[in-house]
């Protein structure tokens, strides 16, 4: 049989184009995405792309800056108000009580020691030292209390509650009764007594390598009782004149303070305020915890020791001149914290303490139905109910 030829492929003209491969049709989502990409403006070269959430971070930072500026303005306004109140109380302390036989034109020069006779005696030697001593002692007590409350993070941990003022008083009474003629002996003994009590309270209140604040308050109250018993023992050995002098001093009074005492308080406040200024930031970091504070670069141990000694020194030096004026250090810090917040309470506690003591002294001299009484009596009447309320509030918080 003849062989059949294989079917031949039809010839394709040379001019005919080659068939193109069919491309898949783009979906609607891809089309919308490409449109959005085409509509988005191109990012300039060299400018980093903003990460998501950058706008919220910037808004938060701006809000914090506004809050910081508002807090600074509020603090400055409160300081100005407190300074104006202190000036008014100073004028009241000097002018109230009558200025018989003293011309009005001699009052201001006599306050600066530029007059003689009766004006110099009444204004420059009696009233001005008393008013300035009340102001400076109140500032020292307020600063000392705020330091301890911020450091130990407990509103009950103040020098007069944990016994530091009692230790200073025990040291000062020892010199007043046994060796009153020693120059600056009362100030030195008050410092020594307060430092010894600080060491004893901290040593006995440690638990597990750290200070237990509840034990610190209880041990401080117990040590204060020991110091009170020691003072009573000294009374049994003293004469009638010494007992009368020391009794007035232990109640807490600025009556009879001389310019030497004012100089001691002024130097003590200047030194303590300058030393407390750099401690404010360290105490703020330590309020977040010791480990985090150390991570932020704070020398925790050194800052704690400096704050403890500085607070004890401020309370002791004020106590050596005016006696233990109670509860001023307890109420000054919380009042400042309520007004400007805990971060700035250290700055405001000193003028608040000054207002409390100076105002109490004006009432103690000229208040109806109560004057004349020692200044410490009025501060105790103000501070003791607050102390009881504070304890009850903490108990309610612990039970809840």
Structural features, described:
With 400 residues, the protein is mainly α. It is built from 14 helices and two strands, in the order H-H-H-H-H-H-E-E-H-H-H-H-H-H-H-H. Strands 1-2 form a two-stranded antiparallel ribbon. Helix 4 runs antiparallel to helix 11 and helix 12 (328-340) packs across helix 13 (345-366). The longest helix has 42 residues, at 54-95. Residues 1-47 have low confidence and may be disordered.
The general outline is: globular
Strand order of the largest sheet: 1-2
- Give the H and E element order: HHHHHHEEHHHHHHHH
How can the largest sheet be summarized?
Answer: 2 strands, antiparallel
Helical fraction equals over 70%
* Average of the residue pLDDT scores: 79
Number-wise, the strands total: 2
Radius of gyration: 36 Å
Task: Draw up the topology in text.
Elements: H1 28-39, H2 54-95, H3 107-111, H4 118-152, H5 164-178, H6 185-204, E1 206-207, E2 210-211, H7 213-237, H8 240-251, H9 259-286, H10 290-295, H11 300-322, H12 328-340, H13 345-366, H14 375-399
Antiparallel strand pairs: 1-2
Helix pairs in contact: 2-4, 2-13, 4-9, 4-11, 4-12, 4-13, 5-6, 5-7, 5-8, 5-11, 6-7, 6-11, 9-11, 12-13, 13-14
